[in-house]
Amino acid sequence: MSEPTLVPIRDAFGRALVELGAANPDVVVLTADLAEAIKVHWFAEAYPSRFFQMGIAESDMIGTAAGLALAGKVPFATTFAVFATSLANQAVRLSVAYNRANVKIAVSHGGLTVGEDGATHQAIEDLALMRVLPGMTVVAPCDAVAARKAVFAVAALSGPVYLRLGRVPTPILTTDDTPFELGRANVMRQGDDVAIVSIGAMLDLALKAAEALAGRGIEARVVDMHTLKPLDTSALDDAAHSCRAIVTVEEHTVIGGLGGAVAEHLARTRPTRVEMVGIRDTFGESGPPDRLLHKYGITVHAVVEAAERAVATRRAPA
Amino acid sequence: MHTRPDLDRLRGLATQLRRDAVRMIALNASGHVGGALGAAEILAALYGHVMRHDPADPDRDRFVLSNGHVCAVFYAALARAGYLELEELATFRRIDSRLQGHPARVELPDLVETSTGPLGQGFSVANGLALAAKLDGRPSQVFCLVGDGEMQEGQVWEALMTANQLGLHNVTLIISDNGLQIDGEVEAIKSIQPLTERLTAFGWRAVEVDGHDLSALVDAFVASRTSDRPTAVIAHTVMGKGVPFMEGLAMWHGRAPSLDQARQALADIGPSATHADFPAVGGAV
Lengths: 318, 285
Hints:
heterodimer; A: 318 residues; alpha/beta; Rossmann fold; seven-stranded mixed β-sheet; five-stranded mixed β-sheet; 14 strands; 21% strand; B: 285 residues; five-stranded parallel β-sheet; 38% helix; globular
């Protein structure tokens, strides 16, 4: 089997913003000294009067973006995940979320695959921090094709959004025809033994694990949960109804992110065994992205093992 | 050409804003009275004369109360400008009220331009409002009120740089400089001096005025509209102004007066020559 081409999600994001800028004159873009890193320099070149370099001042950038939104603009405020969600958290909470301001907080460098920069720059808790804010939509597309659609989808939504993108190039797993509707998960593979639910670029691992499981007689459904909030609860209920267990896969701590969200929901509607593949309660470290994922247990093998463990567990009598 | 203010009417308004703030806070035994009293002339000048404040007007001037805790006087100004029923002032800080303990945009859209409370936040949003006005070619001036203690927040200095860098001449920062914060004197806790020099060094035009002189405030605010730099108006104020037993005492930052103290305060403030108290059915003050 040939490996698919790897394409950086943030490149697709940057190109899509230029497209969006042509379609919607209210779109403005802000960055905090990371224009090239998150690929908004293309927007800056195309629409210099709608691009604002805010310097190394993330909280002020988020607050300024909120003001622009409250006056009718559609601002994309861009930086790294860790800066937007931790450093500028007060501004996100008060000026964006509580105001219900139409700000799109678009970040790169979500997760461990930030790599050599180490734990200080690896946002492993950002999805949890954003998910708990009332009214915040949280999105992490699986590949470059989905990222382009995500840009248009979040711009069409009126309200605050956290759009998380990774740093490293990732395989293209969807096509132009794959739907991308906020709050509606995509079932990427059918199966009724176990459901593997992934977020962001982890879809690649989920699909590979499903293939490996098929060789062992376990049919895995694969669900791309690109919108963490609002969670597609009907996709989860369907999965829990048809399958014996759920495995979640995220480049994020297993506390409060995708695994947490799935477990919170299914505990209420249909108590189901949920295995969580993700970062345990620890910070990351420096290293090559693939080595880090391996060291912190986010691998195809880990997903396969979790699925096998989960289906081996007898379901509690109804 | 700007018309001269009717200073007698503005004085009457400022007096009424003080009476309103004291009663709102005392009726529910909750709120920040000291800063509210100190900001009465600032709010009277803005809402009684300087600002075009019709929330339906997209070209309106905008007001951001970054030091959201003094909001009793802000709600009173909105009511006296005709945007809230006077009766509603009695609901301040009560359950189901739109008059939240700190201003909430979701409760009062376009009257509260942005929610505030945690300090240092509103100024950045004010810059964003000003930037949008500039992009759209609107004549709006954005007036943002901060406390002097609030200048200890780092984000304020980020926002000062932003306004200068982006040429936001349509921002007017009003610093209510009463020298006090919750735990004591600003100068003793973390000095922000020399403030005028600091602001000037950040590229701002800085002017100092008596924050209880309506004529001086109006002149400073009006002049800021045509400045070729963003303007900071350092308004020297007195915490608890108008109520001698509160004046200059940091303990009145966040304390509500008892009913007896409120009656004394209202007697000290005296009646407004132009306005009447809001009705508070069954209220003790």
